[in-house]
Amino acid sequence: MLILKCPYCGVDAEETELAAGGEAHLKRFGPGSSDDEFHDYLFMRENPKGVHFERWRHANGCGKWFHAARCTQTLEVFGTYSAQVTEPPQEIRDAITAKRPGWTWREFE
Amino acid sequence: MSNLASALNGASFKGLVTVTEAGLVGMITLRGDLSSAKLQAAVKVACGHDVPEPRKIAGTVDGGVAWMSPDELLVLVPYAQVEAKLSEMTAALDGEHALAVNVSDARAVFRVSGASAREVMGKVAPVDFSAAAFGGSDFRRSRLAQVAGAFWMDSDDSFTIICFRSAADYVFNLLSTAANPQSSVGVY
Ligand SMILES: [Zn+2]
């Protein structure tokens, strides 16, 4: 069972209070982009065994969206953070590095 | 005037705990910047309480305010006064980027009371109800089995529960089932 701390209300929310929102930090390619860029934006997703970044919503709670960094292999949670960012904050990266030295995910490391 | 009635007309069930539909409660949803002095003053005008800390409630259903999210409060007032209180609040919020709406008739309120109240709640919500983790002025939005709900404790063995009116029948049956006299677990 996954437990994520909602960074907005501070509740340690059990998975059934949350709604999964898919991969984090997607960059939108819309009008003016190439067909390949638009295709990748719509369909291409990371599916790592290990460090992963996701969007979650505290649906049965304060209702806010937030980000989570966790390990898909062990279900270990490295941290949760604000939805109002376009990349993982440094303290989250540091927390991951402490446990998984040399990790990479998309363009982040 | 039409005969105003709550969702279940005060239905009640007695088992491990007493489950009662608590009747009509005036509720005003307020969204805005909770750190704004003007918004805080409007809350005080309406219910007589200060804006509570996150996940807390101040007061009671007869006059209180609960923290719903970083930009949302639920103001509780007597049902008969809700329109008057809303007008006062709207006037106090003049010029403020905020929204106050009367949601009283969209909600139902239940009370679960008795020595096993924590246990009955623990069967329906994914929340730690041990005395060390929940009590006092704690307020929690969560789920009651399959529907959204919010609750707090009025005393050490009594909860007040708010849910959507459309789910009132479901929540009453759910709590009554969880309070079946033969279903005691013996935790909390
Ligand atoms: Zn939350």
Structural description of this entry:
The complex is a heterodimer of chains A (109) and B (188). The mean pLDDT of chain A is 96. Chain A has a 4-stranded antiparallel β-sheet with strand order 3-4-5-6. In chain A, strands 1-2 form a two-stranded antiparallel ribbon. Chain A starts with a strand and ends in a 10-residue tail after the last helix. Chain A has a single domain, classed as 2-Layer Sandwich (Folate-binding fold). Chain A is an alpha+beta fold and 109 residues long. Chain A has helices at 35-43, 90-99; strands at 3-5, 12-14, 19-23, 51-57, 65-71, 77-81. In chain B, helix 1 (37-47) packs antiparallel against helix 2 (82-92). Chain B has helices spanning 37-47, 82-92, 117-124, 168-178, and strands spanning 12-14, 18-21, 26-31, 57-60, 63-69, 72-77, 99-102, 107-113, 139-144, 147-155, 158-164. In chain B, strands 1-2-8-11-10-9 form a 6-stranded antiparallel β-sheet, with helices on one face. In chain B, strand 5 (63-69) and strand 6 (72-77) form a beta hairpin. The chains are: A alpha+beta (109), B alpha+beta (188). The A-B interface holds A 8-11, 14, 16-17, 60-64 and B 54-55, 68-70, 72, 126, 140-143, 148. The complex binds zinc ion. Residues 6, 8-9, 11, 58, 61-62, 64 of chain A line the site of zinc ion.
- Specify Rg of chain B, calculated over alpha carbons: 17 Å
Regions of chain B with pLDDT < 50 over 5+ consecutive residues?
none
CATH topology name of chain A, in short, is Folate-binding fold
Task: Look up the CATH topology of the largest domain in chain B.
Answer: Gyrase A, domain 2
Which molecules other than protein and nucleic acid are bound?
zinc ion
CATH class of the largest domain in chain B: Alpha Beta
Q: Can you tell me the CATH class of chain A?
A: Alpha Beta
Number of domain modules of chain B: 2
Whole-number radius of gyration of chain A?
15 Å
What sort of overall outline of chain B do the alpha carbons produce when their principal axes are compared? globular
Overall pLDDT of chain A: 96
